[in-house]
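your task:
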Amino acid sequence: MPDRPPTPNFPPPASEATPDPARRQRLSNSVVIGAAAAVIAAVVITGIVIVQSRGDGEPNVSASASATGDVVTAAAEEPGPEPTETGPQIFGLSDTVTYETGVEVSLSKFTRATSSDYASPENTPYMKFTVKVKNGGSNTVDTTALMVNCSYSEDGQSSDSVFDDGLDGSPSTQLLAGRSLSVSWGCALPKGEDVLQVEVAPDLESETAIFTGNLK
């Protein structure tokens, strides 16, 4: 049997040959571009990417991307509401208070006096004044629930209501729309005291109006 001819030495296939430096650079660029494309695809799928983080690990600035490619920047934090004044409004003794219902309340005819022996409290210096309620609204006002409280001096000393001749307290009538009534009231006020505070609520449905000022 004749000997087999020797196998020729062919050069290695192109796929196994060592690439030249230029080819290696192209391959490296392809890997980088492919990785970047994968990151972009992940952003599109998840919809959120953190642009910058603070040192404490919490995100500082963020952006989101929808499946359609639209980018939405996170809205800046809106400032909180401005604090509003919640305390009651204070009026002068000669002011007129008008409620949203159209009801008006005013004070007038301040006069010093002393209660009689049969009054409650008796023989007590007091300030007599008139409380006027005007119904400028469309509903009837239940003035049987009229409330009047007083205090005096800068320290806010409590003042008793005085019941004497002509000082009968709250009225016993319903105030119809378009009408008004006046009620005489008395609050204990020692001689020498000139600061008076009067709190008035025309009915159970209305907030208390606060009047204050100096008297002779």
